[in-house]
Specification:
By secondary structure, the protein is of the alpha/beta class. It is about 40% helix and about 25% strand. It has a six-stranded mixed sheet with strand order 6-7-8-3-9-10, sandwiched between helices. β7, α7 and β8 form a beta-alpha-beta unit. α4 runs parallel beside α6 and α7 packs parallel to α8.
Length: about 250
Amino acid sequence: MTNKVKNNKSVIEVTDLYKTFDTKKVLEGVSMNLYRGETMSILGRSGQGKSVMIKCIVRLITPDSGYIEVLEQDILKLKDDELNQIRTRVGYLFQEGALYDSMTLAENLLFPLKRNKPGLSESEKQELVETTLRSVDLLDDIEKMPSELSGGMRKRAGLARTLVLQPEIILYDEPTTGLDPYTARDINELIVRIQEIYNVSSMVVTHDMKCAKRVSDRIVILHNGNFIARGTFEELENHEDEIVRNYFI
């Protein structure tokens, strides 16, 4: 682990998490911690339960059993209003960006501000929208509709809408899926830059090895419902277990 891990406390703690859909066991006793200020990637092949796990963390999916603590709150015991408060502190970047097609880019960012930050003045909201769009290189596109944006721009726009609430944690669900190699590289660099600018704690679900290598302080590998290895990219690339090494071929 890096010093970033050793010197900080957990912002997410998951213990013995189980989830089954019909007869398919997806998560089988998963346990992990995300530490303040680190970027951790969850690496695994498609269908291994990576996205299910981070959806459990913000209770978009309810696990069958286990314990989840986020920012010192027991997520599974929170009432709806308490859960909504936590969700404003945890940004979630969906695979498809989840923008509102009928709204401009500016309106997409103003929407969560109006709902979650009613105390801000209109000028403060507008300034926050512009600052956030500038941080993802989309300020010049502020009045565009989602249909006018490329795939990479939509990813950045989705990230901007996540960032506008100034979260302490960001969960990225397959941030480079469906992108060409050049755009994927730009998104990887943006994830690194956002961490540096905002000092967030990040969890990145991916099967993209280049993404995991570029953005991660630490990587965990999810295989057949549980984590089979944890460490830096270099540690796992040279792991003694052949199953772990095969992910890096």
